[in-house]
C-alpha cells in the first residue's frame, strides 16, 4: 500500500493555470501507474488523466484534452496535474490514485483499477 498526498489546490481565477501535485510514500514509485480524478458537488467521480509507469503514455478523457497535462517525476515520487485556462466547471475535489502496473506502458482509465487513493485537494474557481 502506498500513501498519497495531494497539494496545490485552492482558489484560482477562471482563465488562470493551476498545478496539482501528488507525493507518494513508497520506494517503488516507478512501479506504479498513476491517475488523477475529480469529484464535483453532486456529480460522480471522473478520471481526468492517467499516466503509465514509463511516463510517456498518457490518457485523457475528451473533457480534459487540450487543457490538462499529467506528468511524473520518479526522482521526487511525484505526479503532477497541470490545468490551463481553468474553467468554472473545473471546481472539484481532485484525487490522485495509484496502481502497481505489470507493464511500463499501461495506463488505467477506470477508478476500479486503482488500489491506492489520496485524500484529495479542493479546487475552487473564482469568476
Could you give a short description of this structure?
The strands form two sheets. Strands 2, 4, 5, 6, 9, 10 and 11 form a seven-stranded mixed beta sheet that branches. The protein has no helices and eleven strands. The chain has strands at residues 3-7, 10-13, 18-25, 32-39, 46-51, 58-59, 68-73, 78-83, 92-100, 116-117, 121-126.
What would you say this structure looks like, in words?
The structure is a single chain. This protein is mostly beta strands. A hairpin with a 6-residue loop joins strand 5 (46-51) and strand 6 (58-59). The radius of gyration is 13 Å and the shape is globular. It is built from no helices and eleven strands. Strands 2, 4, 5, 6, 9, 10 and 11 form a seven-stranded mixed beta sheet that branches. It has strands spanning 3-7, 10-13, 18-25, 32-39, 46-51, 58-59, 68-73, 78-83, 92-100, 116-117, 121-126. 0% of the residues lie in helices and 49% in strands.
